[in-house]
């Protein structure tokens, strides 16, 4: 299962997707793959999440995870539909323990040293830094990460094409989560070409960071 984390680290960017319509799942997945970024974090913010995860996962050529996982039931539903990693906005010890006990990859959200120590105590080595820009951005991340050289981070929240490079340059950042290349406004008319274009640009940016 750690191979999934390694794959996320190789791609460096995790598209964060909120789908209102299940019918959008297949073409959006196709656009991401065409753009060279076969990764998706489908958030449980909408009723279409579980079925969308299933549709994307059944392709067999994508790393598909579930975001905004708040409960054990959601964790089970996500995995049952093909999610290979889970992400949550905060750190719920019950949910994390369930995932760890069942060999399910989960990266809960943290924003301070207390959260990091709780994550370490639960056996985690990778966490989400959220909401990245709102809580202080890269300066805060570097400050809170300094005492914990065993922990790596996936910053998410307010990250876009203009600031993703500076995050990726920090050696404790495995990948960044962002929605700028998969924003619903880009494909609400049914045209996914802009998603392909922005995804290709994001891939190029990630590849440029040593």
TrEMBL record:
<keyword id="KW-0456">Lyase</keyword>
<dbReference type="InterPro" id="IPR031338">
    <property type="entry name" value="KDPG/KHG_AS_2"/>
</dbReference>
<dbReference type="Pfam" id="PF01081">
    <property type="entry name" value="Aldolase"/>
</dbReference>
<comment type="subunit">
    <text>Homotrimer.</text>
</comment>
<protein>
    <recommendedName>
        <fullName>2-dehydro-3-deoxy-phosphogluconate aldolase</fullName>
        <ecNumber>4.1.2.14</ecNumber>
    </recommendedName>
</protein>
<dbReference type="InterPro" id="IPR000887">
    <property type="entry name" value="Aldlse_KDPG_KHG"/>
</dbReference>
<comment type="pathway">
    <text>Carbohydrate acid metabolism; 2-dehydro-3-deoxy-D-gluconate degradation; D-glyceraldehyde 3-phosphate and pyruvate from 2-dehydro-3-deoxy-D-gluconate: step 2/2.</text>
</comment>
<comment type="similarity">
    <text>Belongs to the KHG/KDPG aldolase family.</text>
</comment>
<keyword id="KW-0704">Schiff base</keyword>
<dbReference type="InterPro" id="IPR031337">
    <property type="entry name" value="KDPG/KHG_AS_1"/>
</dbReference>
<dbReference type="InterPro" id="IPR013785">
    <property type="entry name" value="Aldolase_TIM"/>
</dbReference>
<dbReference type="GO" id="GO:0008675">
    <property type="term" value="F:2-dehydro-3-deoxy-phosphogluconate aldolase activity"/>
</dbReference>
<keyword id="KW-0119">Carbohydrate metabolism</keyword>
